Each structure stands twice: as structure tokens, then as C-alpha cells.
């Protein structure tokens, strides 16, 4: 399986979001707001929870594994998009979180 670095992930995510913005303008006359993007992310995050329950045998659903993989990837995509739209450097935010949390845990 090919791997992509964070910069490639960000670049591809933002290009894909722009394509969705084009569809939104065509179908609704305007792009989704940041709040609508955040709500879409929360919806997908909720689906990750439900699909996790299914994968673990706690909720009856078929085709769980592939849908779960898709929603996990989509959730990462949404976080990248949201960070960009709110002028937050996602790489820096992730690094700071990891460093701070590692220090707390290793304490």
C-alpha cells in the first residue's frame, strides 16, 4: 500500500473540498459554511461510532469493515478541511497535541 505524507494529504484533501464547493454552488447557489462543514464532520464521526459498534458485534449491520474504513478516512479529511477553513495549521496543532499529551502521560 502506498503511503502519503501530511503535505500530500492536505493538498489532496483541499482539492477534493474545492470540487465539492463547485457542486454546492451548482446545486444550492452557495458553498457550505464552516459550520455546515463541522456538522458534516460530526455526522461522520457519529457514524464511526455506530460502525465501530457493528465491527465489535454490538450493532447488527453488514459491510461494516469497508464503511468504517471509508468513514475514518473521511473524518481525517474533514479535520484537514476544517483546520484550513479556520486558518489553523493542522500539522502544528497535531504536533503540539502529541507533544503535550506525551509529556502528561510520561510525566
Written overview of the protein:
This is MazG-like protein. By secondary structure, the chain is mainly α. The protein has one domain: Helix Hairpins (Orthogonal Bundle). It has 4 helices and no strands. The protein has helices spanning 6-28, 34-55, 64-85, 90-106. Helix 1 (6-28) packs across helix 3 and helix 2 packs antiparallel against helix 3. The model has no long low-confidence stretch (mean pLDDT 96).
CATH topology: Helix Hairpins
Averaged pLDDT, please? 96
Strand content: under 5%
What is the N-to-C order of secondary-structure elements (H for helix, E for strand)? HHHH
Instruction: Provide the domain count.
Output: 1
Structural class: mainly alpha
* Unreliable stretches covering 5 or more consecutive residues: none
Number of helices, counting only DSSP H or I runs of 4 residues or more: 4
The biggest beta sheet is recorded as: none
Specify Rg, calculated over alpha carbons: 16 Å
- End-to-end Cα distance, whole Å, is 36 Å
- What's the helical proportion of residues? over 70%
Shape: globular
Q: Can you identify the CATH class? A: Mainly Alpha
At CATH's second level, what is the architecture?
Answer: Orthogonal Bundle
Compute the number of strand runs.
0
Amino acid at each position: 500500500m502506498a503511503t502519503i505524507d501530511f503535505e500530500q494529504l492536505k493538498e489532496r484533501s483541499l482539492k477534493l473540498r474545492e470540487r465539492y464547493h463547485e457542486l454546492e454552488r451548482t446545486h444550492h447557489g452557495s458553498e457550505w459554511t464552516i459550520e455546515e462543514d463541522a456538522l458534516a464532520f460530526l455526522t461522520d464521526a457519529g457514524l464511526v461510532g455506530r460502525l465501530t459498534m457493528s465491527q465489535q458485534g454490538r450493532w447488527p449491520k453488514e459491510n461494516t469493515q469497508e464503511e468504517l474504513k471509508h468513514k475514518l478516512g473521511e473524518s481525517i479529511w474533514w479535520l484537514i478541511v476544517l483546520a484550513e477553513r479556520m486558518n489553523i495549521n493542522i500539522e502544528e496543532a497535531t504536533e503540539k497535541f502529541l507533544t503535550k499529551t506525551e509529556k502528561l502521560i510520561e510525566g
